[in-house]
Structures are given as structure tokens and as C-alpha cells.
Amino acid sequence: MRSLILLALLPALAPAADPLAVVQPLISQMEGGDALPADFQHTPGETLFFTCRVAGFTKSPKEQVHLKYSVQAFDPKGVALSEIYQNEMDEEVGPQDKEWMPQIATQLDLPAILRGGAYTIKIKVEDVLAKASAEQSVPFQVRARDVATSAALTVRDFQWFHTDEDEKPMARPVYHAGDNMWMKFDIVGFKYGQENKVDVSYVVSLVLQSGKVLFTQPEPAVEQSASFYPKPYVTGEFGLSLNKDFQPGTYTMAVLVKDAVGKQSFEGKFNFTVQ
């Protein structure tokens, strides 16, 4: 009987009216900003300001709240965009805070290169006092070029311009003597090293129809980088000017790409016309 009396006198946790839950998620473009609509199109390199509230938490007899939580963003395939954000809240809540709900707030930096699609923010909360947990997923959209993947090293979307400031590529690669030329392309199918290391290089050459090389880039352009999120593709670009006495005809721009990590190479050939 004595043990029953002692148990009855032990202080009990104040039970929550509802189960633990993540509520009121909000994504904005600035700290304290208005919520963006669900169909808002974010862009690579953007910073998302994210907040949410926690409902159904438990308070101790001393009005203490103890929560642990994490926030992390993922791409459409479930790959994390950056390191997980983790924190905890251990504080006292007074009687005057009856309607108060804990807030989680953090920034999510999108990588500079992403494919477009449906992305997700995942929030996990643990109520340490109640030994309860809850999860929530918040979708958001990213608008970006959807460069096709490849199992092997290759070049995609070779585009022709006059200058690096041109926004739209030429419909047909037709130039004239004395013109400036600018080319952009994407490299995919390379392999990753430790910490998603990328080691890709390329050399561009101007070639006659006969196969004779008129010009070769003196030094290869190199992309050597490591990042938390695996870079989906590498963008290459190159420019040159045609002499005013450049002969009309059909020419080839050859791009030799090397992947040092994957020990791969690829040569793409792209024709253009000079009138």
C-alpha cells in the first residue's frame, strides 16, 4: 500500500491535448516574409527562409518544454541538398503563454546547379519529455533546365550564339566572316570522387570538313570541385572570332572532354556554316 501512495504523489507530465505535430509550414523569400504559394517556382542558388510551428508538445510540472528537431531539403530522387540542420529547444513556458507554440526557423540554400522538379523539405521533431516524435514533408518547386542524364560521359545541348551576353541561342548555326562566335554546352555522365568531387576538362578545336585542324584551345578548361550535393552537370563555354577573310563553307567544332575521376573521354563534333 505504501508504494501505491508514493506513486500517486509523483508529479506527472501535463499531457498534450493533441498528438505531436508539425504545423503552419511557411516558405518565404526573406526572413519574416509572407508565405509563398505552393506553386511558386524557385531557382537554383536561391535561399529559402523556412518556418513552422510545433503543436501537441508536452510540458513538465515546472512548465518546461524540451524539443529536438531537424530540417533538411531533398531533390526529387531523395538526395539531400545540404547538410541537415539540427537544434533543440529547452525552455520554460509561463501560464500567460497558453496559446504559444514553439517555432522552428532556418534558411535553406539551394545549390547553384539543379534540375527542375518537385523538391521536399523534411522536418522531424522529438518531444524529449513525452518520448514522442513527428515528421512532416513540405513540397516546393524548382524551375531549372532539365539536362538529360547519361550513364557515360557525353555532351548535351550544344548551343550557338554570337556573344556570351545573348540570351537565346541561334535557331541555325550560320555565321559570316568577321563574326564573333560563342558556344555553350553541358557535360554529363562523369563520375564522382570523395565528397562528390568532380574533375572534368575539355578542349575545343575548329576543324575543316577534310579533318584538318585550324585551331585548338591552347589550354583545357577545367572544372575541379567538391560539394555536399552531387553536381548534376558541368556547363562549358567557348568563344572565338572569325577573320574577315574567313572562307565560306561547312566547319566542325570538336569538343574533347575528359573525366579524370571516371577515367573516361568523349569527343563531340558539331557542324556550323559560314556564308
From the 3D coordinates, which CATH architecture of the largest domain would you assign?
Sandwich
- What is the CATH first-level class name of the largest domain? Mainly Beta
Q: Give Rg in angstroms.
A: 28 Å
Tell me about the largest β-sheet: 6 strands, mixed
Structural class label: mainly beta
Determine the number of helices (DSSP H or I, runs of at least 4 residues): 1
Strand content: over 45%
Helicity level: under 10%
Give me the strand/helix succession: HEEEEEEEEEEEEEEEEE
Describe the structure.
By secondary structure, the protein is mainly beta. It has 2 domains: 2-142, Immunoglobulin-like (Sandwich); 154-274, Immunoglobulin-like. It has one helix at 2-9; strands at 21-28, 41-42, 47-55, 64-74, 85-92, 103-109, 117-127, 132-142, 154-161, 174-175, 180-188, 198-207, 213-216, 221-225, 234-241, 249-259, 264-274. The strands form 4 sheets. Strands 10, 12, 13, 14, 16 and 17 form a 6-stranded mixed sheet that branches. It is elongated and about 90 Å long.
In short:
Helices cover 3% and strands 49% of the residues. It has 1 helix and 17 strands. It has one helix at residues 2-9; strands at residues 21-28, 41-42, 47-55, 64-74, 85-92, 103-109, 117-127, 132-142, 154-161, 174-175, 180-188, 198-207, 213-216, 221-225, 234-241, 249-259, 264-274.
